[in-house]
Amino acid sequence: MSGGADSLRAAVLLREQGHEIFAVHMRLLPPQAAGTEAEDLLAAREALLRKLCAHCAIDLQFVDFHREFESLVISPFIDAYRRGLTPNPCIGCNPRIKFGLLLDYVRQQGAERLATGHYARISRGPDTGCPAPEVGCAESDGGGSTPGMRFRLHRGVDASRDQSYFLTGLGQEQLARAVFPLGETTKRETAAWVESSGLGRLVAENSQEICFILSGKYADFVNDRTGGAKPREGPVLDLAGNLVGRHGGIHSYTVGQRRGLRIASTEPYYVVRIEPEINAVRVGRAKDLLCGSFTVRDVNWVSIPPPRGPVSCRVRIRNLHKPAQATVEPLNPGNENPAALVTLREPQRAVTPGQAAVFYCDDLLLGGGIIDRPPLPDR
Questions:
Q1: Among 53, 56, 90, 93, which one carries the catalytic annotation?
Q2: What is d(CA 158, CA 160) in angstroms, rounded to the nearest whole number?
Q3: From CA 79, how far away is CA 276, in angstroms rounded?
Q4: Which H or E run contains 177?
Q5: Rounded CA separation 131/123 (Å)
Q6: Is residue 358's pLDDT more than 70?
Q7: Is 90 an annotated catalytic residue?
Q8: Quick one: which of 213, 165, 161 has its CA closest to 188?
Q9: What span, in angstroms and rounded, lies between the C-alpha atoms of 88 and 116?
Q10: If DSSP codes are grouped into helix, strand and coil, which group holds residue 70?
């Protein structure tokens, strides 16, 4: 229970369906210094959450995971930015914290399942690979002549709100215990429910983009976590290696960025690559942002077993990106660190290292992985 409209409505829907429920709010940030703006903000949020749950007659618990959240989510987030990546913390938080530690906690409290306000859906079907071969999905090894059953993750019916992308790290045991009551509904229906319930002035319509960065300024957050050390400046190079500017720290840049480069030119420059090994930001023109292939690491096959060969599917390279037709080819099947080569039918703009690439077959989420650095564009 975050305190937003989605998690609150999910809880009420489950109770209306006859389920016995209780709510749990995770404290993910360390106690703030008394009298600080952050302490006041967090205290106000918790007070509002208590009020909302009381209004809806929902029992509420608090659980403190701030130390675990620091080591499993925040520290990797900071480290990734320092290495020139653009991470999505929710991709790691969902399997490790929400459907990891929190799921373990609620089961210890007697719960059978953990429900969230994600706009996504779960089904169950035979463990035989992609159920829609007409789009070219390769058959996968089900592990025997008699296939078992497998949980499948689908996009929510509200395409504009679908949040399946953030759940690509989940495994079968986690999906077996997960419930997404909003998967068959729309955000518009949730907004209408908020108003009809008299909660319009209390409940937040949307969650904060990065929950642990209260200011919303990720570069300042990374700076603060360096112990006050000044960010390391370095060169801004064009694709030919010419010096065209200086940067104030690679963590302040991401692939596709245009603003803040401060390079005098008759044609706009964009960040096309970040190179931490030489502390450089590489820039090019708009056409240089197009990428036709890239590799992904830490691949997790969610709804199908690991395929034996190439899979024709659609790939989403960031949240809200329209999935693009592609072929995903496993590079090291059976390896402890699975990887894959993604070849796009049409090059896509600003493929960003550190973000997740998620594979779909129609509305079925097949799996996904973390984008590695694509090669530099040919000159």
A1: 93
A2: 5
A3: 12
A4: helix 172-177
A5: 12
A6: yes
A7: no
A8: 161
A9: 19
A10: helix
Q: Model-level pTM?
A: 0.89
* More confidently predicted of 37 and 292: 292
Q: Which two tokens stand for residue 33?
A: 């210094």
Catalytic residue among 53, 130, 137, 211: 211
User: How remote is the C-alpha of 182 from its chain's centroid?
Assistant: 18
Q: At what angle do helices 5-16 and 187-196 cross, to 10 degrees?
A: 80
The strand pair at 23-27 and 60-64 is best described as: parallel
Record the tokens describing residue 100, joined without a space: 């990891």
Q: Is 68 exposed, middle or buried (0-12, 13-18, 19+ CB in 10 A)?
A: middle
pLDDT one-digit tens code per residue, 180-236: 999 999 999 999 999 998 887 777 666 656 777 766 677 778 877 766 667 789 999
CATH superfamily of 228-287: Adenine nucleotide alpha hydrolases-like domains (2.30.30.280)
pLDDT tens-place string over residues 34-66: 678 778 888 888 999 999 999 999 999 999 999
Q: Is 130 an active-site residue?
A: no
Q: Quick one: tokens of 185?
A: 């509904």
